């Protein structure tokens, strides 16, 4: 037991420390303007900014997709400590819903170009996407696992990062194609919409497949294996169990319901498919109704 302040939280009560049930009151970001980047790390980017309401300088911390629990904890701590001596004050908490659409669209645009030039990236994940928030630009990086696509060719299945691996990699199907990248896009979109750091978070490849099966169900998985004559063997009882497909609404909470529109759910459903031939292509995804609304100075022109 700590020698000092051991009973502080018990004394202050549950409302003081319970961040799990803490409800965030989001503001809109129009009041703040980014000036320049001053730092960043695995979970956030930090910028110097200006509060346009009073022209005061401020620091803007842009969180990358992380677990809602982590966001709540940090905000709750800062809310409680704001005003303390030499402790940074939390000025505001803002949420820009348009960012998800904007940057997802830009990533799809990049992948359509890549695929149209006969190349699979094979490691699409948040860590390989660099974002310039000030200029609202995006860059797809790290081409170490990229490969040229040739129909009917067997490719190495030990590519990609576990949380973003498509089912074909997890069952050993080697004649995959560009749609491998589209599964990864779907995983990223699900993380952002449902505010989960990783939507499918397996501890190893078998557990990764199990997480997918428990979400998408086993009925279509069996159809997929038969269609492509995939001989999938396992001794794990959990991977041989039947699971019912969960509706996407199962993942909607009070904290993410403002992001989980019917259009978003439909796009997710068409990206996260077992059958790689059924997934939307990057170009088809850009034309989805989810992206039909224009944001700020972004103009989403019809595709050629």
TrEMBL record:
Keywords linked to the UniProt accession: ATP-binding, Kinase, Nucleotide-binding, Nucleus, Serine/threonine-protein kinase, Transferase
Enzyme Commission number, as recorded: 2.7.11.1
Main location: nucleus
Molecular function per GO: ATP binding; protein serine kinase activity; protein serine/threonine kinase activity
Catalytic activity annotation: L-seryl-[protein] + ATP = O-phospho-L-seryl-[protein] + ADP + H(+); L-threonyl-[protein] + ATP = O-phospho-L-threonyl-[protein] + ADP + H(+)
Binding site for ATP: 70
Cited CDD domains: STKc_CK2_alpha
Any Gene Ontology biological process: regulation of transcription by RNA polymerase II
Superkingdom per UniProt: Eukaryota
InterPro entries hit by this protein: CK2_alpha, Kinase-like_dom_sf, Prot_kinase_dom, Protein_kinase_ATP_BS, Ser/Thr_kinase_AS
Enzyme class: transferase
Keyword Nucleus: yes
A cellular-component GO term for this protein: cytosol
Subcellular location as annotated: Nucleus
Family indicated by similarity: Belongs to the protein kinase superfamily. Ser/Thr protein kinase family. CK2 subfamily.
Subunit structure: Heterotetramer.
Protein name per UniProt: Casein kinase II subunit alpha
Organism name: Sphagnurus paluster
